[in-house]
Amino acid sequence: MSSYSAKRTIIGHVEKGTDLYDSITRIAQQNNIMLGRVTGLGAVQKAKLAYYDQKEMKYKDFELNEPMEIVCMYGNISVKDGRPFVHAHVALSDGKGNARGGHLLPGGSPVFACEITIEEFEGPELVRGFDERTGLALWPKEKVL
Description:
8% helix, 145 residues, CATH 3.30.1330.80, globular, mainly beta
């Protein structure tokens, strides 16, 4: 099993009105973060998410067209097509506390306020590759889990 250690941590907020996914990707690319973890909390003005249909092996997009609290955002950064690639999921709640969540997509989740932490790791590069069994771009399989 590969060994990874903390390299640096970037903490800050995402600018109001900017897209949540695109902002995280931009930060990762500007800082050349090829391996890391991202967490966050705050609120979005609306959200564009997806659910992966395991039978059809494709993402199905959906939108939440109302202000939502980011109860939890958790994701990772690795390499896809030679560039930093963000894979993040969010749990969101509406004004009545009803929760929805899914795979965060680019271009559809303008931030109201969001604080993020990106932890960069040192260690062997994780390059995503196509997995025929799932239809997803996954990390390489480890020999020991």
